[in-house]
Structure formats: C-alpha cells, structure tokens
C-alpha cells in the first residue's frame, strides 16, 4: 500500500496521533484490565475479618466505601480498624477481627451514623438486627461442651443469650449416664458481634464468626417448608393421601 | 534548553530570601496545616477533621469528599446515601475557585516527596529521564473509571498511593507509605516529575477542574522576561509556561490557562524579574514594559510585595 494509491497526501502528524492513541489506549486498556481483576479479587477477604454493622454485601461495599475511616474514628471501643496492605481486606476499608476485639453492639450504632456514603446502611437503627456475620461451632472435636464438660462460656457471654445461642441437651453416649449441653447458634438472632469467639477458653476458638455469605445462606425459593406453608394457608395444601384398598394374594389373610 | 542547576540563586540575590521562597514556605505550611487538622485528634485529642482526604468531617459540621473518589463510586453503581454527595460538591466548588491542581501542590501529602526528588535531581545533575507523554495520565483516568464500572468497586482506591500515604500518617497504616517511597525513587531515577506530571490520575482529574478554575498564575509582567529559563527549571509542569510567557507576539493571554498548572508558585518565587503573579482567569491584561520605570532591585522587593498581595490574592 503506497501513498500514491490515493490522491490525498498523508499527514505524518495524523499517523503519529493515531500511533499514540493506539499505544496509550492499549496501555490504558491493560491498566484497566489489571485494575478490574484486582477489584474483583478484592471481594475475597479472609473469613476472620468482619465488616462493621450495616455493611452492604462485600461487592456493593467495595463500590460504596470511600476508605475515609470515619466509622473507625467513631467506634468507642477501638474494635474497628482500617485495613493495611498486610491485613487482608481491601486496603483502607474498615474491619474487625472478633478474636482480637469483638463488637460491643452500641445502642446508638455510631459507626453507621458516621458513614458518609451508605456503605454502612443508615436503615440499620436496631443493633440487634445487625448481621456482621454468624457464629458457627467450627471445631466440634475440641468444643468442651461437646466433650461433655460444662464450659458454657460462649453461651453466657452472648448478648442475645437463649436466642442466638441455646444449650441443647442430649444423652452422652460415651459415659451413658451424663448429658451433653451442646451450644447451638440460631442465625436468625446472631448479629456476628463475636463475643463468643473472643471468649472461647481454648487456645484456638472452637466457635468462630463467619461472613454471612459463607455460613448463613438463604433457603432456595423453590424449597417450601410444608409445615410453614400449612400454617400460612390455614390448612393442608395437598389432598390427604389416597386410601388405597389393600390387595392381598387370593384368599390371604393378614 | 538547559536547566539551571541552582535556579534560585539569582532571585535570592535580587529579591531577598523571603520573596524568593515565599510560595515554597506557604505551600509547606499549607501541607502541614491540612495534615495537622487530621492529626490533632489522634495525637492531642482535639478533633478538628476526622477521616482522611478521601472523605472527612470537620468539626462535626463540614463534610468533604474527594470528587474523584465520589465519581468512581458512581461509576461502580453505588448511589450515595449520606453526606458524601454534599461533601464532593463542596470540594469541587472550592477547587473551581482555587485552581484545580492546587490540590496537588498545596494539600497532597506526596508532594513533599516528589518535590524532594525534583530538587535532588537538579542538585545531583541527574538529567536522564524516561520519555513519557504528559497526557498518559488522562488515559489512566479513563482506565480507572472503566475499571470502576467493570469491577463494581472504587478501583483507584485499591492502590492509590496518595490516600495510602495519608492513611499511613493519620491512621498509622505504615505499609501504605511504601507507594510513596516507590514514587520517590521513580521520580528521582526514572522520570523527571514522573508520577505527578505523567501518571497520577488524581492530579489529572483535578487538572480537568483546573482548566476552568478561577485562581491562576499569570505572566502579566512578561515584558520583563530576560529568558533566564529558571522558571522552566523549577516548574513541575514546564509545558504550561510557554503559551503564556511567550504569547506576547501572538497576543495570547498572559494567564496560564492550562489545567496542568498546579499553582505552586515556584515560577513566582524563582523569577528575579517578577514576571509571574497570582491572578484570575479572564484578567488578560499584561503590564506595560517595566524597563522604563524599573526601580533598583532593593526598592522593588519592598514596594512590590504588598502590591502583589492586595491585587492578586483572592
């Protein structure tokens, strides 16, 4: 292809400009791709790092949190910290580690009030409805209560005692004559404050607060609980089972 | 053009130490002032500004939010709830008045590090510089906004060394200062004014505001220019000077209109002929040739300084 093929003389400046646009545009595209990948991968945070009360789901949180630290400043118990590069969550975002300092669940929720963007939802006004995570007995093999002892510490320190954590009594099959008082977490009431995890007497806590999306999933819509639907509808939703005649071999008797 | 290794010598001799370093001192004071607003709380328990440069609350009443962070948040499809929208509007309005990239030279915590790198470059005679086009940073602004849309996150804040340094200073997150160390080495050894002048998307964003901002530097006394090139040697964005300083023949305005200008005032300090002053966009009148009435250098220091302050400072 030569310049003589067209009648219009080529402007070398135009070629330079196009070259620059392609080079810089390409560089910018590479930068955008890397930054996008980093942005998406930042949604994965260590399970032991929890977001403040009212935090949006992680994906939306990273779109909303401007890393100002106002929630951290207004946290009266120094529970919240801003993430440094080595901490795990996206750098500059607020988090806490329940085993270090759990959330004290202030009635006034100052951290949420301080948030200028709604990354912490201002609709949260009752701290008992917060969902910072959910406690799970992650180590049944080491939990003292599950070995048949009466530790009960996680149950005793729970701010929603007898609602978020209950002790379920069962027979101790090993000794055959004692009971096991199993701490059971009820996700509906658990705020994920982490008092239980903080207080576990073991070197490594047997109960841990995990992110909602890991440990407290929503039931699929298409699985209906018959007993709940029945109460809602005020009666059985399906016909009673058919009474089929019992057919026996000729002349047989039961 | 050969950059003068010690550009301030002549200005100090002609105008005196204060007049030749006024803007440098004021800028350092301003940078310390903005840092002190945030540090008085954690250090002394007197809370003035809470938060960081990304978003803050001053005295419990004044919300301020970085409009570039706010824009990325919108691009990531978060509709703000709370004070961040008002805060971003206030900051935007302030920089529309006070010069756009004044953020870079008067507030940004990284500026002392890049200034130090530029000063060391002059002193050590490091002339090597990688050739990077100054508009590369505009492509980065596009890349950051695209990444915000695609990843649904405030993309630049994932790595932004500017706010990382501020958090390091204000919240004690010291890993965040690593980016500044890297920028210092890059500016010193790889590219002259490499970070602020070519790469930083935050500065590029404020540069867009600077294109229409009111407060500007003006070469209104350009008739007195003796082509010593000292202003080019100290200016972090030397390409912005020529159109205003050399625009006499073409009738171009003496006001430095380019958004890239950080209004740092280094040219005002360094000029022994008092060519540059602070001024306002739209005030296009140049001063008449002063050579006819030029007083002795010593007298000019005394007489010109109050005149500059009264007329040009907003």
Automatic annotation (TrEMBL), chain A:
Keyword line:
4Fe-4S, Electron transport, Iron, Iron-sulfur, Membrane, Metal-binding, Repeat, Transmembrane, Transmembrane helix, Transport
**Keyword Transferase tagged:** no
**Superkingdom per UniProt:** Bacteria
Q: Which GO terms describe its molecular function?
A: 4 iron, 4 sulfur cluster binding; metal ion binding
Q: Domain 4Fe-4S ferredoxin-type, which positions?
A: 55-85, 93-125, 181-212
Q: Which stretches are transmembrane?
A: 21-40
Q: What is this protein called?
A: Quinol dehydrogenase
Q: What organism, scientifically named, is this protein from?
A: Bradyrhizobium nitroreducens
Automatic annotation (TrEMBL), chain B:
Instruction: Provide the 4Fe-4S ferredoxin-type domain boundaries.
Output: 215-246, 252-281
Pfam families named in the record: Fer4_5, Fer4_7
Q: Does the keyword Cytoplasm apply?
A: no
User: Which domain of life does this protein belong to?
Assistant: Bacteria
Map out region (Disordered) in residue numbers.
286-314
The name on file for this protein is: Quinol dehydrogenase
One GO MF term on file is: metal ion binding
Q: Which GO terms describe its cellular component?
A: plasma membrane
Q: Which UniProt keywords apply?
A: 4Fe-4S, Electron transport, Iron, Iron-sulfur, Membrane, Metal-binding, Repeat, Transmembrane, Transmembrane helix, Transport
Q: Which residues cross the membrane?
A: 32-49, 79-98, 138-156, 168-190
Presence of keyword Heme: no
Which InterPro entries does this entry report, sorted A to Z?
Answer: 4Fe4S_Fe-S-bd, 4Fe4S_Fe_S_CS, Electron_Trans/Redox, NapH_MauN
């Amino acid at each position: 292809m030569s310049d003589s093929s067209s009648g219009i003389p080529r402007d070398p400046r135009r070629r330079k400009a196009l070259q620059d646009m392609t080079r810089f545009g390409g560089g910018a595209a590479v930068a955008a791709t890397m930054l996008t990948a980093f942005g998406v991968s930042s949604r994965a945070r260590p399970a032991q790092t929890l977001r403040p009360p009212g935090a949006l789901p992680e994906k939306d949180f990273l779109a909303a949190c401007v890393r100002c630290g106002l929630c951290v400043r207004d946290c009266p118990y120094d529970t919240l910290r801003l993430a440094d590069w080595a901490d795990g969550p996206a750098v500059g975002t607020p988090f806490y580690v329940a085993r270090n300092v759990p959330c004290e669940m202030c009635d006034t929720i100052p951290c949420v009030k301080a948030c200028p963007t709604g990354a912490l939802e201002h609709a949260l006004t009752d701290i008992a409805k917060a969902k910072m995570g959910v406690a799970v007995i992650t180590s049944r093999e080491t939990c003292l209560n599950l070995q048949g002892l009466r530790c009960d510490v996680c149950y005793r320190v729970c701010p929603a005692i007898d609602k978020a954590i209950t002790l379920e009594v069962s027979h101790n099959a090993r000794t055959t004559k004692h009971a096991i008082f199993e701490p059971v977490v009820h996700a509906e009431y658990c705020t994920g404050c982490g008092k239980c995890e903080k207080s576990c007497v073991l070197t490594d806590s047997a109960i841990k607060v995990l992110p909602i999306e890991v440990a407290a999933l929503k039931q699929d819509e298409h699985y209906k609980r018959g007993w709940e639907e029945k109460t809602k509808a005020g009666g059985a939703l399906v016909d009673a089972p058919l009474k089929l005649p019992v057919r026996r071999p000729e002349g047989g008797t039961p | 053009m050969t950059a003068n290794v010690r550009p301030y010598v002549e200005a100090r001799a002609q105008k005196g130490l204060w007049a030749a370093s006024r803007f440098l001192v004021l800028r350092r004071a301003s940078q310390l002032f903005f840092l002190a607003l945030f540090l008085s709380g954690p250090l002394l328990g007197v809370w003035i500004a809470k938060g960081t440069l990304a978003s803050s609350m001053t005295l419990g009443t004044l919300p301020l939010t970085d409009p570039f962070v706010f824009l990325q948040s919108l691009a990531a499809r978060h509709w703000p709830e709370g004070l961040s929208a008002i805060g971003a509007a206030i900051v935007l309005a302030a920089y529309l008045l006070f010069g756009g990239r004044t953020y870079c030279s008067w507030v940004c915590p990284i500026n002392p590090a890049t200034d130090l790198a530029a000063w060391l470059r002059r002193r050590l005679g490091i002339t090597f510089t990688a050739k990077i086009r100054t508009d590369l940073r505009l492509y980065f602004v596009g890349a950051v906004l695209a990444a915000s849309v695609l990843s649904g996150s405030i993309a630049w804040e994932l790595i932004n060394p500017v706010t990382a340094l501020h958090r390091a200073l204000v919240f004690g997150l010291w890993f965040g200062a690593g980016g500044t160390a890297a920028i210092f080495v890059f500016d010193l050894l790889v590219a002259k004014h490499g970070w602020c002048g070519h790469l930083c998307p935050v500065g590029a964003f404020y540069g867009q505001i600077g294109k229409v901002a009111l407060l500007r530097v003006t070469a209104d006394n350009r008739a007195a220019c003796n082509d010593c090139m000292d202003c080019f040697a100290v200016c972090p964005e030397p390409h912005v000077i020529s159109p205003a300083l050399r625009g006499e023949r073409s009738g171009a305005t003496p006001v430095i209109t380019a958004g890239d200008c950080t209004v740092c005032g280094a040219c005002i300090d360094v000029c022994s002929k008092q060519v540059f002053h602070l001024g306002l966009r739209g005030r296009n009148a140049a001063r008449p040739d002063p050579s006819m009435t030029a007083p002795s250098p010593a007298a000019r220091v005394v007489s010109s300084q109050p005149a500059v302050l009264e007329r040009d400072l907003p």
